Amino acid sequence: MIKDESKELNQKDLEEFNNKCEECRKDHESVSQNLILTGFKICKSCRVSKTIFPI
């Protein structure tokens, strides 16, 4: 029973940790890098646009 719950938690964590940008909804490898650096799930292009136009 405990093993089944841990598998569900691991699968849930993996689904949450994907490379999909929260702004443009595209898959990109820079999303996981920016998540580690800034704590936001955004791609490189969205990060640059948010830096230039912060509104």
Describe this structure in words.
There is one protein chain. This protein has 55 residues and is an all-alpha fold. The chain has a domain of 37 residues. 60% of the residues lie in helices and 0% in strands. The N and C termini lie far apart (48 Å). The mean pLDDT is 82.
Structural class: mainly alpha
Helix fraction bin: 55-70%
Number of helices: 3
Order of helices and strands: HHH
**Terminal Cα span:** 48 Å
Strand content: under 5%
Low-confidence stretches: none
Task: Summarize the main sheet.
Answer: none
Number of strands: 0
Shape, principal axes of CA atoms = elongated
What is the averaged pLDDT score?
82
Question: Radius of gyration, Cα only, in angstroms?
Answer: 15 Å
Please describe the structure with a list of short key phrases separated by commas or semicolons.
55 residues; mainly alpha; 3 helices; elongated
Concise synopsis of the structure shown:
With 55 residues, the protein is an all-alpha fold.
Show the helix and strand layout.
Layout: H1 2-16, H2 30-38, H3 44-52
